[in-house]
């Protein structure tokens, strides 16, 4: 007698490796720099709004997320029917691949890039086409355009790229979009958009308005500091947004997540002040690393990337000894979030002593 068997592709799904919590060390404050979390607590007023919402936990969430859609539409000056919300931007990536790919269809993305991409693609039975990033950690958009075939349904552009750090410029994205067939969906994953300070930053909203095949995915987990509530949003032409809503999990975004996101949008000016403080810390860290002889890529997210190859595990262990936990990618490198100033100081201390 045989037991029930999942689809063959399920066995091929790579595991998602979450950032480790910090090691508890007596007499030392440890810091988690492994998950690109915002080190600041929620904005004033957000906790109070959530506490009120908790009193309604016996009721289902608003499945249509109507108040959140209205606030997003007002904030970014887009029609509400051009929006879709989900459990973080990663939830939207899963939904996009599910909605637009049949088994065997191809999804093109840079590599290394966001770890969830090959997971979402494999879960849908589609095929990952990984295009190596350039030596400086940037997307090789020419190579990605060349990788598009008759079987390509989706292209994922992560900007800034997680975990390497560089952001795509508007000129680069425009040139890339001119090469991609209009029937191929181009996902501009802007999970870290608030941290970008490049000379030619992508204007995602303007770009989607010019193209019928472009969708933006964004999240409240990073700059907004709502990682624990899992809420992200997509901005896309109406037919694409409708497809995302059609495959979304009913009641997927909880009441408290919706309320927290709305309250955070209402305090966006305060949020951006905090983002500026994190960007200033990022600059201090990058400058300090380069002064110590490290050749780190351009950092446009809230993290820095160390290309370490076979020394990656040793680097992660040395960081742990200093009370900071980083995110190692075995045999490739380590990503380190920008955290509290003391945590960043310890990273610079590590950079001083660890062999380059």
UniProtKB/TrEMBL annotation:
Presence of the UniProt keyword Transferase in the record: yes
PTM sites of type N6-(pyridoxal phosphate)lysine: 222
Aminotransferase class I/classII large domain span: 32-348
Names of required cofactors: pyridoxal 5'-phosphate
Alphabetical list of InterPro entries matching this protein: Aminotrans_II_pyridoxalP_BS, Aminotransferase_I/II_large, ArAT, HisP_aminotrans, HistidinolP_aminotransfase, PyrdxlP-dep_Trfase, PyrdxlP-dep_Trfase_major, PyrdxlP-dep_Trfase_small
SUPFAM superfamilies: PLP-dependent transferases (SSF53383)
Family stated for the protein in its record: Belongs to the class-II pyridoxal-phosphate-dependent aminotransferase family.
UniProt entry tagged with the keyword Chaperone: no
Gene Ontology MF term list: histidinol-phosphate transaminase activity
Assembly description: Homodimer.
Domain of life of the organism encoding this protein: Bacteria
Name of the encoding gene: hisC
Official protein name in the record: Aromatic amino acid aminotransferase
Keyword tags: Aminotransferase, Pyridoxal phosphate, Transferase
Protein's job: Aminotransferase that catalyzes the conversion of aromatic amino acids and 2-oxoglutarate into corresponding aromatic oxo acids and L-glutamate.
Gene3D superfamilies attached to this UniProt entry: Aspartate Aminotransferase, domain 1, Type I PLP-dependent aspartate aminotransferase-like (Major domain)
